[in-house]
Amino acid sequence: MEWKGNKDRYKFTSDDLLFQVFADRNDLPKAEYKQAREHFFSKGQPCLRTSPLTKTYGFGIHGDSNGKVALYGMETEEYQNFLADTKIKKVKAMKSSK
Protein backbone atom coordinates (compact mmCIF):
# COMPACT_ATOMS: atom_id res chain seq x y z
CA MET A 1 0.00 0.00 0.00
CA GLU A 2 1.25 3.42 -0.85
CA TRP A 3 -0.22 6.66 0.40
CA LYS A 4 0.58 9.63 -1.84
CA GLY A 5 -1.06 12.96 -1.15
CA ASN A 6 -4.36 13.55 0.64
CA LYS A 7 -6.58 12.72 -2.33
CA ASP A 8 -4.94 9.32 -2.82
CA ARG A 9 -4.99 8.54 0.88
CA TYR A 10 -8.69 7.74 0.88
CA LYS A 11 -8.71 4.83 -1.56
CA PHE A 12 -8.80 1.90 0.89
CA THR A 13 -11.54 0.60 3.15
CA SER A 14 -10.92 -0.37 6.75
CA ASP A 15 -11.06 -4.03 5.64
CA ASP A 16 -8.36 -3.35 3.04
CA LEU A 17 -6.20 -1.79 5.71
CA LEU A 18 -6.77 -4.57 8.28
CA PHE A 19 -5.91 -7.24 5.74
CA GLN A 20 -2.81 -5.40 4.51
CA VAL A 21 -1.48 -5.11 8.05
CA PHE A 22 -2.10 -8.85 8.52
CA ALA A 23 -0.42 -9.67 5.19
CA ASP A 24 2.61 -7.48 5.92
CA ARG A 25 3.05 -8.84 9.44
CA ASN A 26 2.91 -12.41 8.10
CA ASP A 27 5.11 -11.81 5.03
CA LEU A 28 2.42 -13.08 2.67
CA PRO A 29 3.35 -13.02 -1.01
CA LYS A 30 0.90 -11.05 -3.15
CA ALA A 31 0.08 -14.19 -5.11
CA GLU A 32 -1.58 -15.56 -1.95
CA TYR A 33 -3.59 -12.45 -1.10
CA LYS A 34 -6.92 -13.50 -2.61
CA GLN A 35 -7.15 -16.83 -0.81
CA ALA A 36 -5.62 -15.45 2.40
CA ARG A 37 -8.09 -12.53 2.42
CA GLU A 38 -11.05 -14.90 2.07
CA HIS A 39 -9.73 -16.98 4.96
CA PHE A 40 -8.91 -13.87 7.04
CA PHE A 41 -12.47 -12.54 6.77
CA SER A 42 -14.15 -15.95 7.13
CA LYS A 43 -14.04 -15.30 10.88
CA GLY A 44 -14.87 -12.08 12.67
CA GLN A 45 -12.18 -9.42 12.78
CA PRO A 46 -11.78 -6.67 15.36
CA CYS A 47 -12.14 -3.07 14.30
CA LEU A 48 -9.30 -0.68 13.56
CA ARG A 49 -9.44 0.63 17.13
CA THR A 50 -7.63 -2.54 18.20
CA SER A 51 -5.03 -2.38 15.44
CA PRO A 52 -1.35 -2.00 16.30
CA LEU A 53 -1.39 0.96 13.91
CA THR A 54 -3.32 2.98 16.48
CA LYS A 55 -2.43 1.25 19.74
CA THR A 56 1.29 0.72 19.27
CA TYR A 57 2.44 3.01 16.50
CA GLY A 58 0.25 6.05 17.20
CA PHE A 59 -1.38 6.53 13.83
CA GLY A 60 -4.63 8.40 13.54
CA ILE A 61 -7.18 6.93 11.16
CA HIS A 62 -9.64 9.25 9.46
CA GLY A 63 -12.64 8.07 7.46
CA ASP A 64 -14.27 9.96 4.63
CA SER A 65 -17.92 10.06 3.58
CA ASN A 66 -17.34 7.23 1.06
CA GLY A 67 -16.24 4.68 3.67
CA LYS A 68 -12.57 5.00 2.81
CA VAL A 69 -9.86 5.57 5.42
CA ALA A 70 -6.50 7.32 5.59
CA LEU A 71 -3.62 7.00 8.04
CA TYR A 72 -2.01 10.05 9.61
CA GLY A 73 1.11 9.91 11.74
CA MET A 74 0.69 11.68 15.06
CA GLU A 75 3.67 13.91 14.21
CA THR A 76 1.95 15.35 11.12
CA GLU A 77 0.26 18.69 10.76
CA GLU A 78 -2.86 16.98 9.37
CA TYR A 79 -3.17 14.84 12.51
CA GLN A 80 -2.91 17.94 14.71
CA ASN A 81 -5.53 19.70 12.58
CA PHE A 82 -7.94 16.78 13.04
CA LEU A 83 -7.38 16.89 16.80
CA ALA A 84 -8.11 20.62 16.91
CA ASP A 85 -11.24 20.38 14.74
CA THR A 86 -14.21 20.25 17.11
CA LYS A 87 -16.54 19.09 14.30
CA ILE A 88 -14.69 15.78 13.96
CA LYS A 89 -15.66 12.96 16.32
CA LYS A 90 -12.60 11.40 17.95
CA VAL A 91 -12.61 7.77 19.13
CA LYS A 92 -9.61 6.49 21.08
CA ALA A 93 -7.87 3.24 20.30
CA MET A 94 -8.91 0.41 22.60
CA LYS A 95 -6.63 -0.54 25.45
CA SER A 96 -5.35 -4.07 25.79
CA SER A 97 -7.28 -6.10 28.34
CA LYS A 98 -4.50 -7.17 30.64
Structural commentary:
The chain is an alpha+beta fold and 98 residues long. The chain has one domain (5-84). The chain is built from five helices and two strands; from the N terminus they run ααααββα. It has helices at residues 5-9, 14-25, 33-40, 52-55, 77-84, and strands at residues 59-63, 69-73. A hairpin with a 5-residue loop joins strand 1 (59-63) and strand 2.
Write the layout of secondary structure elements.
Elements: H1 5-9, H2 14-25, H3 33-40, H4 52-55, E1 59-63, E2 69-73, H5 77-84
Provide a brief overview of the structure.
This protein has 5 helices and 2 strands, in the order H-H-H-H-E-E-H.
**Number of helices, where a helix is a run of at least 4 consecutive DSSP H or I residues:** 5
Number of strands: 2
Whole-angstrom Rg = 14 Å
Number of domains: 1
Low-pLDDT segments, ≥5 res? none
Major sheet description: 2 strands, antiparallel
Please state the overall shape, judged from the principal axes of the Cα atoms. globular
Average pLDDT level: 87
Strands of the largest sheet, in order across it? 1-2
Helix content: 25-40%
Element string (H = helix, E = strand): HHHHEEH
Distance between the termini: 32 Å
